[in-house]
Structure formats: structure tokens, C-alpha cells
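lol ok so funny story. i was supposed to be doing the assay writeup but got distracted and ended up predicting the structure for this chain instead. priorities right. anyway since i did it might as well share w the group, maybe its usefull for someone
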Amino acid sequence: MDLKRTQLLLLFFAFLCARVRKLNGDSIPRCIPIERNALLGFKEGLKDPSNRLSSWVGDDCCTWKGVACDNQTGHVVKLDLRNPSCFEYYPPNNTWCLGGELRPALLGLKHLNYLDLSMNDFGGISIPEFMGSFRQLKYLNLSWAHMHGLVPHQLGNLSSLQYLDLSYNYYYDDNFEVPPRFLIIDNALWISHLSSMRYLNMTDVKFREGAHWLQALNMLPSVVEVHLQGCGINTTSLSLPHVNFTSLSVLDLSRNSINSTIPGWLFNISSLEYLDLSDNFINSMIPGWLFNISSLEYLDLSYNFFRGIIPPAIKNLASLKALDLSGNQFLEGKIPVELGELCKLQYLGLSDINISKSLQELDKVFTGCIKNSLETLYMRNTQLDGYLPDWLGDFRKLKYLDLSGNSISGPVPASLGRLAELVGLFLEGNFLEGVMSEEQFANFTKLKYLDLSQNQLILNLTSDWIPPFQLYYLNFGSCKLGPRFPAWLRMQKNITDLEMSSTEISDAIPDWFWRSFSQIFWLDISSNGITGSVPDITDFINLDYFNLSSNHFEGPLPNFNSSRLWLLDLSNNSFSGAVHRDIGKSMPNLEYLSLSTNNLSGEIPLSLCHLRYDALDLSKNLLLGELPDCWNHSSPIIVMDFSSNNLSGSVPPSICSLRFLESLHLSNNNLSGELPSSLKSCARLNTLDLGQNRFTGEIPTWIGESLLSLKILRLRSNKLVGNIPPNLSRLMALQILDLASNNLSGTIPSSFGNFTAMKVSGEMNGTILKNNTHYNENMQVIIKGIYIEYAILLPLVIVMDLSNNNLSGMIPEELTSLFGLVSLNLSGNHLTGEITEKIGALQQLESLDLSKNNLFGGIPSSIIGLTFLSYLNLSYNNLSGRVPIGNQLQTFIDPSIYIGNPDLCGFPLSQKCKDDKTNQGLNAVGGDEQNDNTMDEEGSEMKWLYMSMGPGFAVGFWIVFGPLLCNREWREAYFQHIDQVFNLVYMVLATISPSLKYTTLQRDSL
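and the output, tada:
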């Protein structure tokens, strides 16, 4: 008792002393001048564009923003300069980020125990070595600071450190031309010296091979939480002689390249509650011992290569609250019934695995005690079919249900409406049908996310309906919602993502919509029949994605004012007027801009040159003038499409300062001059479309020397002359070569048989563009005599079109090695020689046009083997002999495909071959044997026919013309009648000749 009284008295006297000091004007020590100067010296190296450190003035540094001092000593103990406003992605889209350099003046803060510089942008500098000198530091956070380089070993001197976060540091330079640079650890043994460590986060810090990361961790007895996500770890020891970090509760090794089985040393960590091994390459069965770690509450094994079955022993994880097994290769449909016995399970992920069952068959799994605890069920892309079962309504705690991307059919049952706790419902990409009424949504008072898109549902929601929920995310794409614009949306005050594409709305957007949804992030109402104009939406400052394409909007383009907008698609409407001069300034971060297929006029504004697009599409408008020559500042552009306008002049040289340019569409304009040599700098081009312009001169040889990535070369309908350069065959990736309708001469180079990509079939999953972009590469190609526009199927199209030139010589036999060709068009030239018998090797041919040449000889019989052929034109040559018949060729019954070859005979021509019967049709296949057997009979009949022809002709002649010669009146009447008929025919022909002339010209152009 005496001791306690003494302590109380001491505390009382201390309080009195403090009060007396205050009354006498004395103050508790505040900012120490040396530390104040250290802070100012550190500030001098920083870049502070938003003046966040404006409070760093005056003598008392302890009052400065981000600075905290010890109340007793006045020493600076905390420096928190974390940027709360910076977005967690690169590049930082926020001027609040601090930058610059980290100066060693900070070392003046000897008592610092808390340092946070996270969420800033230090422009790719390295972590300075002096960071290892703060011996009292307990908390260090440099995450999201955009640093790179080696992590200094000196950090191992921070023996008092309890919290270290270096996560998410990477830096892009050289205008994104090279991959990001990361922080790197070459040897992790310095981590073992951090004996006080409790929290370690090295996410996206790259460990080099042999960095000894596991040995280092095993020396940290107090560590509780470890995050090594995306560290490039590819191996891990399966066992340890002694497990030292037995306090470990959280271990995250996700997004690495671990290819072994689950390491056995995990079994010795009895405190483990959270284990994340997702996104690795683990290729084994799940070991049985894993289910004996009874402390586990969170287990994520998703997106590996686990095989076999999900062990029934999973029921032993009685404490489990979250389980994710998505994206593995378990045996088809093997979902153990024991899964339903996890009575505490709140989250279950079974997406992207092959279940291949109907939902009804899973009732035994989901009828256990799991139905009383489950809050989240993800089963997307699992090949489920059948109907939505009624037992789904029994999960009364369910908050998130995701069954999207399956083959579930039928209506949405009323029992689903019993899920009153539902926050997110995702059913997109199924075959659901029927009507959803207001009653089915009545209990969804907590719903925030709703996705019913890509189904065949009809939403019967009246205009005066008051929804019971307030949504953040709504997607009704491809459901029937129209024809009226849904008035009930006016009640939704919190929507940030709205997608109603292809919903059969054919109404005008009401004015209230533009006023009420100014906070929206994502808006897609494309592919409807929406009418009216779009007002200026300068208040939409949060807008990221704006898609109004394929509607009936008209009037001028709206003005925007969103620094966050990255996609703007107003294509396929009826907008008119000029493109705003300052369009580039109002949307500085725009990555995709499509104003295609409108009625826009005027010139292309120069401000477009200063945006950092992936794709820029202004095709199919009425734009005029010259292409601007100011693309030096737009280096990230991948696609540029100005086709189908009225542009004139030449191709500006600055276009090929776009180092990432892969697709250039300038076709169907009035561009002129020779093909500019500046294009040779576009070394990454996959598509070059300059067709339907007025380019002159020869095809330059540098195309085959510099543009080696080309997959599509289209120069048709220009005024190009000269020979075709043989070195075009060096374009190994070329799959579409269209040089038609020029004045090219000379021969077809035999080297054209070397086009590597034309020797194999196209790939359905292939792409024309290497980089990802929302732009769908498309191309108009003449196949089967008509224009066909390809987009999704473009990678399958392999075409060579050299038609309507002045090419001469023989068709090179080497072309028959291009086994992947789908269409070959050499018509309208002066080619000679015979059609090679090897033509039958082009097994993928669907269209073959060799018309309007000087080819002679017979049609090769191997053409019968072209079983995919659906279009053939051999007209207007000098071909002779019998038309082959068999297989696919039997379907070509139109004789016009052989017209203009007077020496051809046989079906389907009216001209019969000499050894034919009087009428030979499709049954004449293999007729040679029949001809041999009947030759004698036909020969005798022919003799009598020829013997009777002479007398018959003489008798017939005199019967008709004899009376005319003898009787003058008959003769005059006959020739008067002939004159009248001639005059009548002449008048008719003179009347219809303009239309006949137009039809003839149109046929010749094809």
C-alpha cells in the first residue's frame, strides 16, 4: 500500500510541475532546429505539383502536415506523406503525387520510427541505401511509389522494423515501349536480420533465381503476415529441417510460377489461417495432409493445374470460411458431397472448372449445413446446364451469386426472389428466357450489382415502377427492355456502371437522364434504335467509358470534360458538323476514339495529334482537307483509320513517328503522289491499306525490306505502274495481298510461292493486331465476285488478288504451294499458258477467278478435287476440250463461268463434245467407258446423219427461197416486213442502251 501511495504522489507532483511550467510561460519542447532543417532539406529534393507541403513553413515543424513529434522530447518520430488521392495504377493520373528525389538530409531525423512515402510517383528511382540507417524505425511503407532497381541490403540493418511494405513498385519509361521495371531482390538473406518483423509485403518485387527467400523467412520467429504475390518465384523447398516462423498466420504466394506440389512444411505451421497459392503452375493432386490444418479459415488454390478429385477429407477444415478451387483440372463433375458439411463456409469459388452437370444434380452438395452459412457462390464458366433449381432460394444468407457463362436455360424461378440478402446477382451469358416481372425483384432491397446480359430475357417493368434497390452496377445487354426508355432508372441515384446495349430501345433519351447520371463511370447504350441529340456532358467528370455506337443520334458532337475518359465510341450514328477543334484538350487520357460512320465534315483538328490513343477511327465520314502532319506527340497509337473520307494530299511523314503503329487505314480517299518512303519507318505495321486512292509510281521495293510484319497489304484501285517487286515474298506473315485494279505490268514473280503465312490455314483464334485494343480490325475483300467485309473472321482470310492489271506471262506453278489460299483472283490480265494440273493442291480454295486472260489448253481434271470451291470463273480465255465434271464441280451449272472459250464443250455448256450423245448431262460423269462401249453404234448413226444432211439442206433451201426468187410481189412484201422488224428492234435497243451500258461496265469492274 505504501508503494502505491508513493506512486500516486509522484504522479500528482509531476502534474503540478507541468502546470507550474505552463503558468510560468515555459513550454514542452517542440520542434528541434536540426530536425526542422533536415525536413526542409528533404523537401528541397521533392516535386510537389499540388503544393501539398505548403504548411512546411515557420519554426514549429511539429505542426506541419504529415509530421508528428514526441510530446515529451520534441523529436520528429513520424513522417506520413502517403498520398490518399493517387490512383493505384500506372501512370499516376493525379497531380497530388509527390515526386523527385529522396535526399539524405532525412538522416537528421535520428528518432524517426514511422515513415510512409507510399502512393506517390518518384519516377523510377531506386530505394536509397541511407534508408537502412534509421535504427529506431518500426514502420516503413514505400508501396506504390514507382521505384525500381535493386532493393538495398542495408534495409537489413533495421532491426526494430515491424512493418515493411515495398509492394506494387514498377516503372514504365521510353513511352511504354519496354516492359515495366520492378524492384529486384538478388539475395533475400538480409531479410533474416529483421528479427522484429511482423508484417512483410513484397508483392511484385522480383526475386532472382537463388534468392533464398524461404531461408530468410524461416529466420523471422515473430512474423505473422507475409505477402509474396507476383515475385517471380518458380521453386520452393518441399521440406525444411526446422520450421522457425511458427507464428505465421497469413501467407500469400499467389501469382508466381511455382510448379511443384504444395510444400509439406506448411503442415508444421499450426497458426496458419490464410493460405493463398492461386495463379501458379502447381500440377498435382491436392495432398491429404492439407486438410489437417484445422486452423485454416481461408484457402485459395485457384488457377493452378490440380487434378484428380476434390478430396472428401475437405470436411475436416471445420474452421474454413473461404474456399476457392476455381480454374483447375479436377475430374469432370466430381464435386464431393462432403463440401456441404463445411458449416462455417461463407465464400465458395468453383468457377472455370469442368463440372458438366445440371444444377439439379448438385442438390446433394448444397443441401447440407453449408446452405445456412454461404454468402458467396461463384460458379461461372463451369459448363453447367439445366434449369435454375428452386433450392437456390434456400440460401437465405447468400449475398453474391454468380452463375454466368454457363448453358443454363429456362426461366428465372420465383424462388430466387427469396434471397433477400442478395447484393450481387450475375447470370449473364446463359440461355435464360421468359419474362421477369417486378414481383421477382420485390425482395431485393439490398441489391447493388445486377447482370442479366447475354440472355433472352424479357424485362416486363412498367414506367412507373419504383425499384426496391439502389444499384451501383446494372447490365441488361441483349435482354428485351424496350421499346420505351426505362423511366424507372430515374430512381437510381447511385449507378456508376450502366450497360443497356442491344435492348431494343427505340426511344429518345429523356432530359432527366443527362442530369441524374452525371456521376456515372461507365455508360454503354449501343446497338439500339435511340434517337435524338446528345447534349454537352461537361459535368460528367468521372466518365471512364462512353459508348453510344449504332443508334440514330443526330446533331453536333457533344462536348466533353473528363480527364478520366479512356473510351469514346459514337460510331454508326448520324452526327453531323465539324469535329471540335479542342477535342484533344478536353479528354487528355483518351485511349480509344471512334467517330466512324457518321456525317462529320470539315478538316481533322490538330488537337487529335496530342492524345495518347490505342486506336483512332474517323472512317466513313465526309472529312476533307489534308491529313495533319503532327503525330510526333502521339506515340502509343496502335490503330489509325481515316478510310472512306474525302481527304487529299499525301501521307504525312510524321505518321511513322508512331512507333507502335500496327494498323493504318487510309483507303477510299483522294490521296495522291508516290507511296512515301517515310512509311518504311513503320516497322511494326501489320495492316497497310492504301487502296482506292490516286497513288502513282511503282510499288517500292522497301515494302519487302522494311515492313516485314505485314499481314495485310492492300493497294488496289490506284494508278500504280511497273513490275511487282519479287521481294514482296519476304513478307512471311502476309495473308492478304491485294494489288488489283492498277496498271501493273510484267510477270507474276515466281517467288510469290514463298509466302509462309499463305501455306497454312488461318487460325480462328488468331489476331491481326499484336497489342490488345478495343478496335476490331476489319477489311473489305473481293471474294466470289462481291465485296465482303471481314472483322472477327479476318484471321481466317488468306487472299491473293492481282486482277485487272496488265500482267503477262504464265501463272507461276509455285503459287500452287500456297495451300492456305481461300481466294485467288488473277482475272483481267494478259496471262498465257496452260492452267497447271497442280491447281488441285489448293485444297482450301473457295474462290478461283482466272477470267479475261489468254489462257489456253484444257481445264485440268485436278480441279475436281477442290471440294471447298463455291465460286469459279474461267470465262473469256482460249480454253478448250471437255469441262471436267465431278465432286464440287457438279454444282456449277451456270454456263457463263465458261463463256468466251469457244472450244470448250460438255456440261453445263450447250456445246457438246464430239464424242457426246445428243444430250449429255450430269450423268455423264465417268462417260469415257460408256463412250468406248457405244462408239461403233454412234459411228454408224453419224454416217447416215451426214449422208442425209446434203439433200435435206438443198430441198429445204428451195422450198423457202424458191417462191421468193420467182414471184416479185412476194419478194418485195418479205423484205418490207424485214425492214419493219429491224426498225422496231433498233428503236428498242436505242431506248435501253444506257442501262445496258451501265450494266456492262459494272460487270467489267468486278
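Residues 198 and 223 are 4 Å apart (CA to CA). The helical segments are 2-23, 33-44, 213-217, 511-516, 583-586, 703-706, 927-966, 968-1005.
back to the writeup now i swear
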